[in-house]
Amino acid sequence: MERISTSRLALFNFRLTHLAQRMPLLKKVFPMPKFPFADWLRGPLKPLVEQLLFGKEANQLGLFDQQYLYTLIDEHMDGRRDLNYFIFLLLTFELLGL
Fold first, then answer.
1. Alpha-carbon span 76 to 4, nearest angstrom
2. What pTM was computed for the model?
3. Residue among 96, 12, 92 at smallest CA distance from 49
4. Which of 16, 80, 74 is closest to 49 using CA atoms?
C-alpha cells in the first residue's frame, strides 16, 4: 500500500506534471478520439472541470498545487495553450478516484 501511495505522490509534483504535458509520448500512450474535446472543455464541460479540479473535495485533499493548476486551466480556457490531454488525464484521475 505504501508503494502505491508513494508512486501516486510523484504525479502531484508540478515539475513532473509540467514535463509530462510537453512529452509527445503522452499523446501516443493516451490517444484521444477525434472529437472537439477542446471546445467541450471550454464550453459545456467547463463546470465539471472546475468542480472536479477546484471544488471543495479537491481543496480538502490538497493533492494538487491549486494555484499552478488554476494557471494551466486558465491558459487552456483562454485559448493560449492546448492542454486537452493534460486536462483529460486529470479529469480521468479524479473521476476514477485514483
1. 30
2. 0.58
3. 92
4. 74
| Cα–Cα distance for residue pair 37/76, rounded to 1 Å | 12
Cell of 47: 463546470
In the structure grid, which three cell numbers stand for residue 10, read together? 510523484
Query: How do residues 21-65 score in pLDDT, each as one tens digit?
Result: 676 666 666 665 567 888 889 999 999 999 988 888 777 777 778
Q: Which of 77, 34, 78, 97 is nearest to 87 (CA)?
A: 77
Copy the grid coordinates of residue 40: 467541450
Contact 38, 92 (CB under 8 A): no
> What Rg, from alpha-carbon coordinates, does the chain have?
13
Question: Half-sphere exposure (CA, 13 Å, Cβ side) for 49?
Answer: 24
Question: Element (H or E) spanning 60, and its range?
Answer: helix 56-61
Give the integer Cα–Cα distance in Å for 36 and 50.
Answer: 19
